[in-house]
């Protein structure tokens, strides 16, 4: 059903945008060309957005793009510094801000007919979650040392070490599925609404449900990007501040 709807919405007749079950086998790895192309498009849009907002920097009279960029940067940077302090949080601000902007563009890309959100592919969200796992252990070792980081798993009050390890494994899994589930569900419903409602019905207001859900999906896209970044900050600050 979803595949048929997406074929109808594929105005540009690009096969890679509709064959979402098609994978390329490269050195034993399954690669989705659709997700890969959408990721490249999202990255290009992020670079274009950053360039457009910062190409005419002016301290005395900042433009609207510069103001928007600075507001987003200060907002996410404030979240990092509030949880980790300036000394430990400053190096992480740019990483979290990049996460935030990139995930927003990835989430919103699927709202355009014929395109798809890279975050509607669980491989993308798991990749993002694995980056977070790396950052968690990197900062934990950086601030607590290897010995202190290992000791964290064998503290006296953590009697059930296996359960604690399961908790650590569950962090990236829940982060990946939370982002993937929300974005994929939004894409499916929008595609179904657009596919089920005939064009003639739009003259009588049948477009209203699609518009409402589209607006809600935009809101969800921003919220899910924020939630992913806040979980990243929380997990890193927890491990980095465990032994100091």
UniProtKB/TrEMBL annotation:
It comes from the Bacteria. Keywords: ATP synthesis, Cell membrane, CF(0), Hydrogen ion transport, Ion transport, Membrane, Transmembrane, Transmembrane helix, Transport. GO terms for molecular function: proton-transporting ATP synthase activity, rotational mechanism. Its main location: membrane. GO terms for cellular component: plasma membrane; proton-transporting ATP synthase complex. InterPro entries: ATP_syn_F0_a_bact/chloroplast, ATP_synth_F0_asu, ATP_synth_F0_asu_AS, F0_ATP_A_sf. The keyword S-adenosyl-L-methionine does not apply. It is a multi-pass membrane protein. GO terms for biological process: proton motive force-driven plasma membrane ATP synthesis. Belongs to the ATPase A chain family. Key component of the proton channel; it plays a direct role in the translocation of protons across the membrane. This is ATP synthase subunit a.
């Amino acid at each position: 059903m979803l595949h048929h709807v997406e074929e109808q919405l594929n105005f540009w007749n690009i096969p890679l945008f509709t064959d979402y079950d098609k994978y390329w086998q490269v050195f034993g790895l399954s690669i989705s060309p659709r997700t890969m192309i959408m990721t490249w498009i999202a990255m290009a849009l992020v670079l274009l957005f950053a360039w457009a907002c910062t190409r005419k920097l002016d301290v005395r009279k900042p433009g609207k793009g510069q103001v928007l960029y600075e507001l987003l940067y200060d907002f996410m940077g404030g979240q990092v510094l509030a949880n980790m302090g300036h000394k430990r949080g400053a190096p992480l601000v740019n990483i979290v801000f990049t996460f935030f902007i990139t995930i927003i563009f990835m989430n919103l890309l699927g709202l355009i007919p014929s395109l798809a959100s890279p975050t509607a592919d669980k491989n993308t969200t798991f990749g993002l979650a694995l980056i977070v796992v790396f950052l968690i252990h990197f900062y934990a070792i950086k601030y607590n040392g290897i010995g202190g980081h290992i000791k964290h798993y064998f503290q006296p009050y953590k009697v059930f070490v296996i359960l604690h390890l399961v908790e650590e494994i569950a962090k990236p899994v829940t982060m990946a599925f939370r982002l993937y589930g929300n974005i994929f569900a939004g894409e499916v419903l929008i595609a179904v609404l657009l596919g089920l409602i005939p064009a003639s019905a739009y003259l009588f207001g049948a477009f209203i449900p699609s518009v409402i859900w589209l607006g809600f999906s935009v809101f969800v896209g921003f919220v899910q990007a924020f939630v992913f970044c806040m979980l990243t900050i929380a997990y890193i600050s927890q491990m980095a501040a465990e032994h100091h």
